[in-house]
Amino acid sequence: MNNSEPKIVAFCCNWCSYAGADLAGTSRMQYPANLRIIRVMCSGRVNPVFVLKALRVGADGVLVLGCHPGDCHYLTGNYRTRRRLSITMKFMEYMGIEPERIQVSWCSASEGSRFAEVVTEVTADLKRISPNRLFND
Amino acid sequence: MTREIEKKLRDAVRELLEKGTIDRIVGYEAGSLKFSTTPLITSNKADVDRLVINPFTHSNLSVFLRDLCGKVGIVAKGCDARSIISLIQDRQIARKDVFVIGAPCGGVIDLAKVEKLTGLDRDEVDDIVWQGEKAAITFAGSTQKFSAKEVLADSCLGCDPSDFKECDMLIGEIEPIVGGKELGQDRIREMEAMAPAQRWEFWKKEFSRCIRCYGCRQVCPACFCDRCFVEETEPRWISPLPKWQDNLIFQVVRMMHVAGRCTNCGECERICPANIPLGSLTKKMEEIVDELFQYRAGTDKDAPPLMAAYQPDELEDLMR
Amino acid sequence: MKKIKKQSIPELLEKWQKEFAVFVPSKASGVSQMEVWDGQDTAFLNRNRNTAVPPKEKFLPGMEKMFGFRKEEGSYVVEPTDGEPPKQLLFGIHPCDARAIGIIDMVFKDAYDDKYYLSRRENTVLVGMACTSPYDSCFCTSLGFGPADAMDVDIMLIDIGDAFLIEEVTEKGRGILAGAKGVIEATEKDEKEAAAARESANAKVSRKIDTAEISRRLPLVFNDREFWEEVSAKCVSCGICTFLCPTCYCFDINDEMLQDGSGARYRNWDCCSFAIYTRMPAENPREEKWRRVRQKVYHKYLFYPELFNVIACTGCGRCIRQCPVNWDITQTLSNLPAGSPGKAEEKKKAS
Hints:
heterotrimer, B: alpha/beta, 11 helices, C: 2 domains, 13 helices, 20% strand
């Protein structure tokens, strides 16, 4: 356990998870303020280099949120996210990055509570491991 | 033996050129250094007699296909042939424009390994020849025999030549490569035995030597982007300065871009002037792709590229 | 002439270490290059094959901070990098690499003094070591010197078995030897042995080019597109040959910015083999590979000689042995078409 507050970069898709985050806010749900949300049109826009750049410039963790499988606004965008980021997660683990640092989840526009839950869990995960010093000289 | 194969190859290519089946040939000719070959790209029938096949045909010649017009004949080892299929899958070349001359190999000899075994540089070694299952290396006045595992490139050790497909012509016989699948995985297991933090330290040290010559990218047939992400400036994803952090990100993102395309031909590792063990990364990516998708790059020209396909219900155990 | 026993070298290096950062050829990092001497290693005294990475990176590092800057009251304040570069001594430089340093010195003090390069250069002592085992890719003897010639170094060592014969080339060289233990007068026999070593090293360089003929032909074949397309076909456009070339000096300049508006300006190696090297908003004059390959050859063998009267190649052979596809510059140079004299005349008239 470390006492510092982790910084988390969250890539949220425009149609589901960003709206889910909105709902969590307007419903006044409590969730940790560790998130920096970047809205993307679809989670399928998230290139592995986005994830690595976020870690490179100091994020403690990266969370990618998209629509549930089958619900993608663009039909198949999140399926591609899933493939691409699965190999990213596996490969970065081989490089020596803690698996907690890169996470992917699904959250619909109506799931404000799920959004709050996922953020709470990811924040707790990242508090359990040390702050990101991977890219320090 | 080799001579005979070479004669067969030369005769076949000459005929293909004469008949107009192909407009040009991409093959190997003897290089200007000991134990080297160099690509021979020609449409001239007179050059055909320079074609060679030997255990030093390291280059993956499919890297040249996108730049050549007309119908191209290409001499391909097993891994190269899979790269060609992968390029067809990605619509980088058309099946009808390429005539694949399969040249099954028993694995290429890793000269870096030979240097370690002999304690000499490659130009100081007198001779390397196969004698049955062993490689006989003559140096410092005597000949010593080494097992295939000791001299073959690591990328060859796990090679499965049975999926040699889409050949329009085959020169020689497909034979299993000495070694076996597990041998090729040894270095992955070694790496995985290390603690995560140790692994990161290892790669940090390795990538601090990278000089960003982009040799790995340039020799890679799977790296076919017209504009590489490292050259983007708006936004600039990684620094063009050779800092280890950016060197590492360049390489891991490259690995992700070639996932499902990389046939583990081993060229990136062989040519790296900083001796970074990139084969450990390509091998691991091959393993991940196999584990998650039961997919092997370049084995089915009609299959969609790995990252362009999906199954509705897969990988959910990896999602939070 | 003086000489020094090989066993006395470590003590000498220790003495030098008091004043300089002492670099020696080493493979400790995983690639053979000049590394800080660890006080133990003596392998380089007996096996002096040239390093994979040339010593130019000790003057022109792959990445170098030029200055920092920060925002202050709506403007920028430049923060110069502090102090002089440390004093360094490079031990075991091969003649080809020493010559290369001499060659690129010219460009760094031509139009203006490049203080980054020159300050490192001035703070450096070069201890050369005659090359006794050239690679099969070496062709230095075609470029006007031999593998055992003392040029552009401060002192030169020639291996004579259990000792090195010492040639003091510059005042700087004499200076660092002053009071050195183990330096004794060489005998006539030692000098004979050194001469024999020099001769045998010369004989080992078997690769040859004809620079006079090349200089005559190059101006005639610039527009021979067919030839350049053919020779460049197998080039993969990576940066290995230029980054590892001891005479390639191109660099790019990049700013690294922090969020508060401060940052630093760096320079890093650049390479004419990259298509991006000449990319400009409107066009790229060397988009095609054959133009880039041609440029590399011309820069070394025609443009540089026109400017500085010396070929910017020392025949170290790195570009041949490190090339992924064994693209061999000596083959290209030897196969230059003879060109038509008429064209040369036309060119002369036009200029």
